[in-house]
Amino acid sequence: MRLILPLTLVLIPFLACAQKPAKLQIIPEPVATTVKSGVFTLNSATSIAYPTGQKDVELAAQYLAGIVQPATGFPMVAKGTTAKAAAKNQIFFELNTKKIKQKEGYLLEVGSNGITVTVASGAGAFYAVQTIRQLLPPEINAPTIQQSINWTMPNCTVEDFPRFQYRGLLLDVGRHWFPVSSIKRYIDLLAMHKMNRFHWHLTDDQGWRIEIKKYPKLQQVSSCRVQTLVGHYGEQPEQYDGIPYCHYYTQAEVKEVVEYAKKRFVTVVPEIEMPGHALAALAAYPYLGCEGSGYSTATTWGVHEEVYCAGKEDMFTFINDVFAEIVPLFPGEYVHVGGDECPKDRWKECSNCQKRIKKEGLKDEHELQSYVIKRAEQMLAKYGKKLIGWDEILEGGLSPNATVMSWRGIEGGIAAAKAGHDAIMTPTSHCYFDYYQSDPNSEPLAIGGLLTLEKAYEYEPIPDVLTPTEAKHILGVQGNIWTEYIKSPDYLDYMTYPRACALAEIAWSPAEKRSWDTFKGKIPAHFERLAAYKVNFAKSFYDVTPAFSEGLVSLTCNDPSVQVRYTTDGSAPTNVSPLYTQPFVLSKSSVVKASTWRGGTALGKTLTVNYLVHKASGKAYTMSKAPTKFLGGDTYGLTNGILGGSKTWDGWVGLVNRDIDPVIDLGAVTAINRVTTHYLDNKQSWIHPPRSIEVFVSDDGKNFRSVGKKAIEYSDNTAAEIKTIVISTPNTKTRFVKLVATTTGVIPEPFPGAKEGAWLFLDEVIVD
Ligand code: TNX
After folding, report:
1. Which of 232, 340, 408 to mutate to test the pocket of ligand 1 (most atoms within 8 A of CB)?
2. Which of 242, 288, 303, 641 could form a disulfide with 341 if both were Cys (CB 3.0 to 4.6 A apart)?
3. Assigned CATH class of 166-490
4. CATH assignment of 621-767?
5. Catalytic residue among 277, 304, 421, 473
6. What number of CA atoms fall less than 13 Å from residue 311's CA on the CB side?
7. CB 375 within 8 A of CB 339
8. Alpha helices in 193-313, H assignment, sequence order
């Protein structure tokens, strides 16, 4: 007999579950949450009330009315009240600085009769609103009316406040400009994730993008470049699009953006780059450079040697004038002055600069750079502003009150905090969202590197070498979107989200509440919210991550509820391809393809890995110095069957100024005929060839004898190249194979980075 249940009976158990989810799925994770039974339902009669006269709380209350209106169609307006408690079916904001100690904190109490939000400031109210938004069905983010949705949220209590006061995202509009509408959306989205700083990188070599009335040529000349590089920087031959690119924001537009941000409790931190990254300004006002002529706005990326002339007084007059116009536009406490990547070549040759060095008793050009930053700080202090700069401002002595943005790693932040200065952490390794986020072979063009969502999430901003007192100087974290390769608002979304969600949780949530597993679990729900908001977020979360160890290939996905299907014959996986259940052995070199599936539908992109199987594949090895994890420093980087590519550092094992000298244990005496490896020659990126490669063998792992050596010819070539080295070892029987690639040591002149340690990159030690 077939039993047909009425639909309601089938649905009730599900609804009951929906009414009391095990956990709230909020990003960033709040300090404390309790879920109760029952729901609050938002309907056309729900009212919103704030304490009369409290402007900032009113702002947040009106913001709530504004965000629920489009999707629900409910005609909501927040009203002032002198009442002490929520009326029925009301969202009631209460200001209570005794109860809420943290300025940006809130207590949210959702009950079936109404919602009470207790706060100490408008910012707290605004963050409570963002939590309410996430408690509602994801469709609340839709721009148009959504029919037949029950606008319910679980009864619950959320107690919350941020871990860090500075929670930022940078957008570079120098390389590519974005319309005001995109800037507002960028701010909306970061505020939605409880971030509160928008770092607006307004000037660079490739364009000056803010109107300065006293210097009209900044608008006419510096905001323009004649064309833009096509493809990746470093690719030969270089190609340009031939299309002039001219954009800037008027001061009226800047005011509009700042005002817009303020209503979302976001402070805009403007950045005016100096003394480097100044080519666009020099193109308009060549007297600001040491040579005084011959400049044009950059059309390609990288670091340019043309910088402001620190020997001339003109530079200081110019920046003071610029400050005079920008300070009134940006009410926040900080002005960012860049300070990064300023080559000293021109200053070394410039008599004015050398004169200044002498006159001021400076040691060298690094101290001249500090001199510039110190004067900038004094100027800003007169305008009542504090200075922030990139970590290079530490070189040659830190300006007395400067705040440091640590980007080349965490060392700048550590040094600043130890010296009693404030710092904001934004290391390339975890905070550069212009890097690839998944296998570069299946991603749109990006600058390089690899920064997955998981890696972004792993970041802990307080370095463990700091004492608790020093750690207080770490004000927070920032994610950076550099836009060399980001030209469209859609791609901007793609690169920013969901990695900015990970950053938001790092910035906001208590350290002990952070867990990748929990965060992972919240991602599907959060994707629904972003999708309703029409964010073109990356779905790399659903891509397959490959690993190869001990000769076994494993294929995992962040979301364990999806199916991974794969092939090993190079064909595209379909919904009937073998289902991955456990690590498998590859007996010969193969192309492994894998993708994720749910209910017969493919979710992420197809992963393709060319695995090279040889006598050392999957074998562990030791090295006299292990590289960092980022540079292949796991147990198998040189034997994982994966060759290095030119797009990211993935696949490569790298060391600075050290030999790469793995000793591989083949496990048993084995006949070998040949050892092959590849090195990367990319002198632009400080990666130099080894001087020689030698292979040794041994039966006991102690006594080695050489079986072949090749010296490597050193060329002046600076285009990136991957080179193959084969060392024949005919009729050799051995258990241990040792390869020694000797480093170039220090980078010779005239290559970029001369006198610094050279990187050495190998990908695999292929034993046949
Ligand atoms: C370094 S971060 C830069 C930027 C580039 C970025 C690309 C910093 C202070 N300087 O000029 O856009 O790398 O990832």
Report:
1. 340
2. 303
3. alpha beta
4. 2.60.120.1190
5. 277
6. 21
7. no
8. 216-217, 251-262, 279-284
Q: State if residue 341 touches ligand 1 by the CB under 6 angstroms criterion.
A: yes
Q: Is there an atom of ligand 1 within 6 Å of 273 CB?
A: no
Atom of ligand 1 nearest to the CA of 392: 9
The rounded Å distance from CA 23 to ligand 1 centre is: 39
Report d(CA 517, CA 454) in Å as an integer.
10
Domain ranges of the chain: 32-160, 166-490, 543-611, 621-767
> Does residue 517 carry a catalytic annotation?
no
The answer to whether the beta carbons of residues 719 and 234 sit under 8 Å apart is: yes
Residue type, 181: S
> What's the whole-number mean pLDDT along residues 204-230?
98
**How far is the C-alpha of 189 from the C-alpha of 2, rounded, in Å?**
50
pLDDT digits (tens, 9 = 90+) for 162-181: 999 999 999 999 999 999 99
Q: Which of 94, 204, 306, 661 is catalytic?
A: 204
Determine the Cα–Cα distance for residues 131 and 30; give it in Å rounded to an integer. Answer: 9
Return the H-helix or E-strand segment holding 664. Answer: strand 663-681
Q: What is the pLDDT of residues 227-255, one digit of tens each?
A: 999 998 877 789 999 999 999 999 999 99
Length of the chain measured in residues = 768
d(CA 649, CA 542): 22
420-446, pLDDT tens digit by residue? Answer: 999 999 999 999 999 999 888 789 999
- CATH-assigned architecture of domain 32-160: 2-Layer Sandwich (3.30)
Q: Do domains 543-611 and 621-767 have the same CATH topology?
A: no
241 is catalytic: no
Residues 6 or more apart in contact with residue 332 via CB below 8 angstroms: 267, 268, 269
Distance between CA atoms of residues 269 and 403, nearest Å: 13
- Whole-prediction pTM value? 0.88
Among 39, 47, 41, CA closest to 20: 39
d(CA 342, CA 608): 40
321 is catalytic: no
CATH architecture of 543-611: Sandwich (2.60)
**Tokens linked to 103:** 């300025």
For the ranges 478-492, 537-551, 719-733, the one whose mean pLDDT is highest: 478-492
